[in-house]
Amino acid sequence: MITFRNVSVEYRPGEKALDDINLEIQEGEFVVIVGLSGAGKSTLIRTINNLVPITDGELQVDGNSVGDLSRSGVRKLRSRIGMIFQGFNLVDRATVIQNVLMGRVYKLPTWRNVFGAYPKKDKQIAAKALNRVDLLEKAHSRATDLSGGQRQRVGIARALSQEPRVILADEPVASLDPPTSHAVMQHLQKINRDLGITTIVNLHFLDLATAYGDRIIGLRGGKVVFDGKGSECTPEIFEGIYGRSLTAEDTLQEDI
Amino acid sequence: MQASELKIPKKPGLRGSVMFSISFAFVLTIVTMITVEFSLLEIIENFTRPNMVVDGLLSPDLTQIFSERSRSAFLETLQLAILGTVSGGGLSLLMAFWATDFGNPIGWLRVVVRNFNNVIRSIPDLLWALLFVTAVGVGILPGLLALFFFSMAVVTKLTSDTLDGIDQGPIEAARASGSGQLSMLRMAVLPQILPSYASFLLYGFELNLRASAVLGLVGAGGIGSRIEFFRGRLEWSEVWGLVLMFFLVVFLVERLSVTIRRRLV
How far apart are alpha carbons B240 and B246 in whole angstroms? Predict the structure, then answer.
């Protein structure tokens, strides 16, 4: 369970990226966070694994108070939270399986990571993760030789190989075309349903948000302005979140 | 009606100052030539006079390199170049990492390492050799120390520049999955720079091989001390024989190294 209690983040004094956030996210939920760029979506999900430290309030993740963790405590927490990025963040020169094995980094001693000496068990975990996103046959291709959608699926497999309790996805489809975007979102949804991993996804396309989000949280100016079921989310509500009328650029499919 | 000729806008820029710079450089060259009393005639005169050095060049002793002492001095040069490159180049990977903000979270240490890298880079190879000959005496050790610092400076600089341009995304990914510092550098950074780094090591080896010929002149071991020995005895055939054979080896090693480096990057 993830609980935000009066959480604020200031990058510079007086400039609040997050302003008094109160949220409770239950285990196994599929949550989509929407908002304009600069609304605080990226900051919000990065506080959960402490990539962005909170400056005020209390944030509980899996029974840990994130603000009070030691350096090794932070690493342990991060090992249980998989993360997926807009720009995939793969090592292009490395092979697909090498990228996925990065998810095992916390569980293995440093010398094994340094020499790339992975035990059979960990290779199996990586292979299973790749199989789940239908990319096992690409295991030995270089990451740079894959298409955008395939690269993001490698990103998902890397997160999965951590055997995480939570998956955070920061604009995972922002650099993909519409059919590929749906494929990636469907993979995330299926993983959430099959494995019960709490999944939090930042999106800025409204049609994707309502199609996949069981719950939608709307952010505006660092504040939560909407929190409800995806099915309850009407265009009027989105206009409230965005603070302006909707345009064609707010949806993935142009005909909606 | 005839179309009127188009007036091309004047080319913007620094035409005047370019002309000025060129004439300034020209004048400077003339003034310098006069000051150092440069004379082309004198060069020609010196070369056409009976001259032992030129005679030696016309009849070089190409077999000198195979004599026992020259051979071992030559092996010493190779060993110096290899040891210097491996030790200095190896350490430069760490020095380059420690000079970046993702490789070294401690701010003041980063500043110290960066300044250290800048200082060692400004010292040329021969000066290193002179320093160490003075400090530890004549022999192979000062040569090794000189090449160690020299190649560390060169490879660190090149590797640092490569590190500046890497993709930071994988670093964030490694951190987000709970990686420690060393594992992160190995998994997210090293694969990105490894081909370039390997090519820098080879380049460092080429430089060291050439440098190690000069090191001997100041008493820092290797083939240079053999060349210096014959020069002192005015045996120019031997000097030129060694220089030519050494040139041949450097040329071959360089060709090989360039070929490998092209494949790497």
Answer: 10
Whether residue B4 is contained in a domain is answered as: no
* Contact between chains at A102 and B192 (C-beta distance less than 8 A): no
| Cβ-defined contact of B174 to A105 (cutoff 8 Å) | yes
**Distance in angstroms (rounded) separating the CA atoms of residues B145 and B97:** 22
Alpha-carbon distance B155 to B160, whole Å? Answer: 8
Which residue's entry shows tokens 């993983």? A191
Measure the N-to-C terminal CA separation of chain A; round to a whole number of Å.
35
Question: What is the tally of structural domains in chain B?
Answer: 1
The confidence score (pLDDT) of residue B215 equals: 83
ipTM for the whole complex: 0.91
User: Domain for residue B10, yes or no?
Assistant: no
pLDDT single digits (tens) B245-260: 888 888 898 898 888 8
pLDDT tens per residue, range A186-229 = 999 999 999 999 999 999 888 899 999 999 999 999 999 999 99
Per CB distance under 8 Å, which residues of B are interface residues toward A?
167, 169-170, 172-180, 182-184, 186-188, 191-192, 194-195
Instruction: From residue B9, give the alpha-carbon distance in Å to each of B6, B14, B15.
Output: 9, 15, 14
A79–B178 CB contact, under 8 Å: yes
Interface A-B, measured as beta-carbon pairs within 8 A, has a size of 83
The CATH number assigned to the domain holding B109 equals 1.10.3720.10
